Amino acid sequence: MSATFKTLDVLLNPCSIAVVGASSNPMKVGGRPIAYMKKLGYAGKLYPINPKAEIVQGLKAYPSISAIGAPVDLAIVAAAAAAVEDILREGIAAGIKAFVVFSSGFGEYSSEGSAVQARLGQMCHDAGVLLLGPNCLGAINIRNHVIASFTTAMEDHDLIEGGFGFVSQSGALGAYWLDMVFQRGIGVSSWIATGNEAGVDVSDAIHHLANDPDTRLIGGYIEDIKDGPAFRDAALAAISAGKPIVLIKSGRSQTGAAAAASHTGALAGEDARYQALFDQIGIVRVNSLSEMVAVARLILMQPPASGPNVGVISVSGGAGVMLADDLDEAGFSVPPFDDDTRARVNDALPGFVSANNPLDVTGSVAGDSGIFSRVLDALGSAPDHDSFVLFIGLMVSISRDLSDSLVRAFANRGKQVAVVWIGAPAEVVRELESHGLPVFADIPEAVQAMKTARQFSAALEKAQRLEGTRWHAPLPVADRLEARSEIRAQDFIRTHSDLAFPEQLLVGTVDEAVEGVTTLSTPLVVKLQSPDMPHKSDHGGVRLGIADPDTLKSTVQDMLEIADKTRLRLDGILIQEMSSVAQELIVGFKRDPVFGPLLLIGRGGVEVELRPDSKMAYLPLTGDAVLSMLRGLATAPLFEGYRGGARGDLKALAQTLADLGNAFAAEPSIEEIEINPLALTRDGRFVALDALSQHRLAQEGQASERPPRDAQGAERQKSPGLQEL
Amino acid sequence: MSATFKTLDVLLNPCSIAVVGASSNPMKVGGRPIAYMKKLGYAGKLYPINPKAEIVQGLKAYPSISAIGAPVDLAIVAAAAAAVEDILREGIAAGIKAFVVFSSGFGEYSSEGSAVQARLGQMCHDAGVLLLGPNCLGAINIRNHVIASFTTAMEDHDLIEGGFGFVSQSGALGAYWLDMVFQRGIGVSSWIATGNEAGVDVSDAIHHLANDPDTRLIGGYIEDIKDGPAFRDAALAAISAGKPIVLIKSGRSQTGAAAAASHTGALAGEDARYQALFDQIGIVRVNSLSEMVAVARLILMQPPASGPNVGVISVSGGAGVMLADDLDEAGFSVPPFDDDTRARVNDALPGFVSANNPLDVTGSVAGDSGIFSRVLDALGSAPDHDSFVLFIGLMVSISRDLSDSLVRAFANRGKQVAVVWIGAPAEVVRELESHGLPVFADIPEAVQAMKTARQFSAALEKAQRLEGTRWHAPLPVADRLEARSEIRAQDFIRTHSDLAFPEQLLVGTVDEAVEGVTTLSTPLVVKLQSPDMPHKSDHGGVRLGIADPDTLKSTVQDMLEIADKTRLRLDGILIQEMSSVAQELIVGFKRDPVFGPLLLIGRGGVEVELRPDSKMAYLPLTGDAVLSMLRGLATAPLFEGYRGGARGDLKALAQTLADLGNAFAAEPSIEEIEINPLALTRDGRFVALDALSQHRLAQEGQASERPPRDAQGAERQKSPGLQEL
């Protein structure tokens, strides 16, 4: 891990808190934190700061931070934007160790606001003091009753301590999350809404939760990551510590991204850049708070499933079928029970029900809930099944019996269990969940949660595989790029990998062509090589299917004339043997200004836009990792002899691309290399039929380290070319 | 419309009801209907039948139906299975016009039960009396308080009259539906659970709701349709009457289908057969009750959207972005507002918010809900937008103001409006919904409902286009099929369509081949023609790329010898010019034993199994309908000159396939025709490169009408070949 993070302990575990702009009205922004903390019994000292009041909400008020006359850990600032700079200056002088600034009117508002915000960040940075905000909804630590927030979501709920931590770049989404988790009875550890991120950002917050012993699961809402490496390091730290991360990243559609840009003032960027990072390091993505909360209940209450085999028990045959449908679509299996289990179930069931999976215990349990109980006991230890879903509908009058049976058979059996109960009485839901059995109100919600939860086992493996990876730093967007001709791009590729090219000859004159061509087999392709004509086939710089010396001569002559007439810088004329192409790949090495250098692999050919099929991951990559990308393509079998087609050596190709990618990543002067097509020939060889590279023109400091974290956002620009696949 | 349906009026609007097996215990099966109807105030006469009681639940009881001594419309039978046959016989004699039989232990239980069930059906059929069940949860008409059901779902809810009707082949799913709709405040018209369907089936029930003036929207849960034409007719009648049908059809996965087969004893069949029918006639499918209920609220409360353009108004920028993401993925647009609307919004909004779409009114409405009100008024008439989604989170303290603004701006504006309100107080939800503004608890639920609702406009158009269609009856599964050779299959195709084949020559001897081949261009393909070798390329019956007379001779000679040695019936040796293939289609004409003859069109070639791409619809089809299927393929552009590739005339091909399909459908002796590949040549012609037909061996009565509806289920078998594409 290379990034450094701010330590948030003093923010979330302060011994004393001043509230600047404290209000006697518990419904006002400056009144809510005091009201909440008084109500919940915050054990530290609370100092309302209000020069116009003696007493605020029953507490002695002070005219200023410095007037307190005692050391204070945290200052909450609920003052007008214009006053904030002075308040922070005074607070720093008085020994404040952390600020939470609610005030808005900064970077989100105007360029003057941005300037002030930058000064606040710098001031705190220089003083070694934490700054959360400005324009933020604050932070909460449920366990010690620190409510440094004015969210209204704390109004109507009893707080529940638990293992779910949350980080949000949107205060509003943070508030909705709080409302939803408390509504559904989920316990919370800490909650941090980062606002304008002049100091603490989401990566600091995730890193904090990764190290917070109270947090077992990390949720988040993000719109825009500014420091890619820090985010990756923080996320990997959490996942490696066994804490799943489940994120909403908005702006995944074109429309949404445009809206996000106008909303946050930041460029959300192509969503694929984020998705690739999430996939690579094992962050699980969801698209709504409901979905996040559903999966969180399962993860927090139940162990992970060790495999895909699910046992389904239903009081309704129809619901059992619907569960099997949804599970199947979500990638689970619903295999038969083993013979022993079947025998036990048959003993427990009335004769006319058979011990299939899904197991239909029929509505007869309504008459004899003992049946249900005996069946569940018989199933509890089915050895081949990794998890169970139990479906119940209504049955309100016997719901207590049913829930007792469920708890006895399944609580703490070490296997994942989800209950779907349509029309469950609220008290039964509470009872079951108090025993760690999550209850879902309908089938899709449960299956979606199981599906998402299943990704976390893979996430931990991914994190472990990535341990010790030395990531390449991102480079700022280049001011100016320069293309290289195919033959020059080949130079770099040949130096750093064993990628194959067609048999070829580079000539400068017609005579050289005629003389040298005898070593090549026809038909031939002739290509003009110039940095000034990177897209040569669009401009007459490529001629295919040349089979005789006269045509070759005239073609080379033509191209030399084109180059001369249009004053191209000429690297020569490239003559290659034509390959017999079975399938095509497109391979790109590019640089993302936030997350660093990356590899894209996609299927090539005419259909690429109709049915896109590509994978993307950040460098460095091992050969195995690239092989996973290749095999992850929907059309991967076409490259390995599918139905008698050409069979390439994907494993060798993967290692070649990994070598090349890692060399590319380490060479900051190269912005991009594209190999298109990388053909699989009919005789099973992978051959690069064209290549192109873009180079960064030397600039002072450009190839060095990335700029400091706070300074990056403004000058960031659209990453070029990533949407090409 | 050709099917005839049972009229359910006397079942759902009886003037008098006898309950056989009436219980004094209102929690028992025989007690619940009486208890419910007494509580709700059923206005007709209620006669408990119980030989052991004088009074049941305060009503005079009778020892038998005949003892009532007055005409009775409906008898509910809650007796032991063994008693049911006698009860029905007595009831028919006493003039009962409809029975609802709750009793189980019939077809779902044993073969004896099936036999009794068949007798019950026949007895009622002969007497012209309705039979619902046996083994059913009954029927309900909310408006006149007929509760001929023992569902427990009526226990805990206030009933709400409304326009949502429901039909279910599962009593349990029917009960969950009732619980869910009343829970969410949706009004119901009638509800029918058909059980074992010895008499009334889902098609009768759908047809009833199609004609029921109280029903505006029809929901359903189905597992297995026995009479395809009746189901299609009933559904089309409903949709043509402007009543959308939204169905759950379980068993859509392999696992689920197997579970359904074991559950219902019927073969659920490949799901694609159902999906094709739904798509063709405009039935909208959902996969859960929650989803059904969400879309029902939108449809029942709001007008349909006349187009894809959605205006989004959100109190949170982040939530607006998430809405834009979900809407985009669901196929909606979120385009900018027109200039006039923008100007009005800008007037209404504080200066720093811009009138984009999504429109972020920011949390500032919490301070001044008048802003929200003015913005909504300004937006209410945005002429370019077909629907609106409003997002609110929490804001409990001003929720009344917000809801008043919403109602004033959007209720009854003639545009579809959905409200997403996370953490909405229950009374505000009720208030908004009482004004016809549906409130959803999170974004995905609302967008999914909008997406599903959008399909209904298309459904009505489809139903109108299908008006007057003379559907072909399904045929029972053939006992025995016989293949025909390619050349014989060509005969039928050539007779009934203008589909092109390669230039070709059919020969019987080597001499004929040598003599005739001078008219053909090389290279050639030679194919053995025999009904005994339908898959000829697997058995050496196809030789490609023959370019000279000697090879031709020896090839023809070889094939004649193969035919002779293996005693094949020989139709000749077919010699064809080889085509230069750009793309391939697979075309199949098949017969579904439930829904009738159908056309399948899929992309062909090596990738077909990796990335399936096919469409299926029932015959007859117009050329336009077939064109829609072709253009509906993901890879359709590849057949119309995509990126400089071959350009075929899809419109002409569609008409050709429609003609051929309709001829096939009308010729009951042919079970199946497959054309694979139907090639698009490089010069843009569609040519059938192979064809195969399967013929039904003549059997008594086979080619005539389908069997009577009640007799079909048992002998139905797996439809062959539909999974091939």
UniProtKB/TrEMBL annotation, chains A, B:
Basic and acidic residues bias locations: 706-718
Pfam family, one: Succ_CoA_lig
CoA-binding domain mapped to chain residues: 11-106
GO molecular function, one term: ATP binding
Start and end residues of each stretch annotated as Disordered: 697-725
InterPro entries named among the record's database cross-references: ATP_grasp_subdomain_1 (IPR013815), CoA-bd (IPR003781), NAD(P)-bd_dom_sf (IPR036291), Succ_CoA_lig_flav_dom (IPR032875), Succinyl-CoA_synth-like (IPR016102)
Gene3D superfamilies: ATP-grasp fold, A domain, ATP-grasp fold, B domain, NAD(P)-binding Rossmann-like Domain, Succinyl-CoA synthetase domains
Protein name: Acyl-CoA synthetase (NDP forming)
